[in-house]
Amino acid sequence: DVDQFLPYMDTVPGKGTSAIEPVCKKYNCYVAIGIAEVEPTTMLTYNTGALIGPNGYIGKYRKVGLNPSDILWFTPGNSGHPIFETELGNIAMAICYDDTYWEPARIPAVKGADILAYICCSDRVLTELGPEAKGDHSTIAAVEQFSAWNGLAMVASDRNNAESNPTTGIAVVYGGAASIWQADGTRTGHSPATDANTTFTNPGQILYGEIDPALFDNSQKRTLERRRPELYGDLAFFKSPTDGAASTESRTVALTALQYRVIAGDVDGNINRAREQVDQAVSNGNANGLVVFPAYSLTGKPSTPENVGEWAEADLGKTTQVLADFAIHLRSYVVGSHVESADGRHYHSAVLLGPDGKLIARYRQTHLDEDSLTLLSAGDDLPVFDTPIGRIGILLGEDVRYPEASGVLALRRADFIAVPTSWNGGYGAYLQDAKGLFVHGYPENTVNFWYSVAKTSQAYTVVANSVGEGNQGSSGVFTINPVDAFPPVVASTDAAEVVTLVVDSLGHPDWWMNQSKLVGGRRADLAVPLRLRMDSPEFLAWKNRPGFDCSGWTAYNQ
Fold first, then answer.
1. Rounded Cα–Cα distance for residues 449 and 198 (Å)
2. Residue 5, CB half-sphere, CA atoms under 13 Å: how many?
3. Within this chain, do residues 278 and 172 fall inside the same structural domain, yes or no?
4. Which of 225, 351, 358, 223 lies closest to 295, judged by CA?
5. Number of folded domains in the chain?
6. Given strand 89-95, what is the order of strands in its sheet?
7. Which of 45, 284, 406, 536 has the maximum number of C-beta atoms within 10 A of its C-beta?
8. Whether residues 164 and 273 fall in one domain
9. Which tens digits make up the pLDDT trace of 111-165?
10. Is the full-model pTM beyond 0.85?
11. What CATH number is associated with residue 419?
């Protein structure tokens, strides 16, 4: 309990930071360290990260993502997500369970961070706890998304020893797996994960890796300029503990991604290749599920204005009609996409069809890639659609590079996210998180963004990509508890395939996380900057002032 803990707590700055200051001065270095902080005047306690440099104490971050143990001892952090200017770059901090959420790295990135110091104390499964062992989340197993989604360099630390609580007698084994990442997502250093046999005297390690400031300007960080804050209003809403939109009944649903070769302009050939995979899916016998087709399902991706004009379809064009026939044949909900012509504009548009072949809804891609910006118009909503199998959200292509998009779908309580894509490896990478922390591992060609969309939205994510023509397949069904329950099921990089996973839409009651817990644990009050116009006075004041200045949206007269 907190009384047990108090004698070991410290002020920040305090004894701990003072002890480290001479080391930083001597070696001209910076140290980020986790400290259990107590404010002596109020006796409020925080899980805190402190940053010390060659000239002494710099600043602190108080953890916002509190886990089931933290809430017994710590007050929710009230520092916001500050960044600190140093000669190495702008440094932000995050702590352990923070990486359950995507916002603790995204907010500093939007504010101008270059480097994330990730301070972790992540344990392995405690089998003594029985069913509660499923609450183990091996936090550092999810850390890659912080770097990958935001174009941030990152130094991620963890403990690798074991300890026993003298009161409970329960031994805890920590996970190890420290890592260092370049801002372009390259991992330059990695320590092995521990195993259940780790001893109490397991020796520590020093992990070295390089961070190149020249990579602070990278393609993923440049996507910050193409964010769509006007679509992210839900991020400032706290939708817990009650949300009438959320599904209350878990359903057993077969989720399927179809992977086949899509040749640009070869509509008849693409239909035939798609039909082969549809027939295979039908023979597998999973009806009343969700089946996702690759992006530009029958035409291929347009690369010229002439392609757009030739392949564009009105509301119920050829693609919609063919997908409707497939939906009836599959006896399932179907999502595919095409170039849509409407109101004198062209969109990349996804269609959702029911098992009866009827058009249920349409989604227009909201975050366009640089090649499409001159060819297509962007959509203006991130809707979620109610169906008898659950609530379905849709993303298209590069939408997955923006965690705000899947974040909004989670807050709108999507149970499933369908992602038709045309991915050629131009963004993202294969997952490099510490396999030793996963009960079942994960496929080598697991794409990090698709994996992260599912995990940080707690919505099963079905991604369908094509093969050939430069595209790299890897379609799959990405799961909401991949660390200690079900790994993603992923297709090959180069073959036509059907990938199916049967899931319970709301997960398992014993799992450490679900969407309701995710929504209840996030800090909507700190996410406000993500939904502010990037040219607004409030946003600019927050971004340019030191600390985490909320005065632009919290000022009031009493």
1. 32
2. 16
3. no
4. 351
5. 2
6. 83-86, 89-95, 115-119, 153-157, 179-181, 187-190
7. 406
8. no
9. 999 999 999 987 765 555 555 555 455 567 779 999 999 999 999 999 888 777 7
10. yes
11. 3.60.110.10
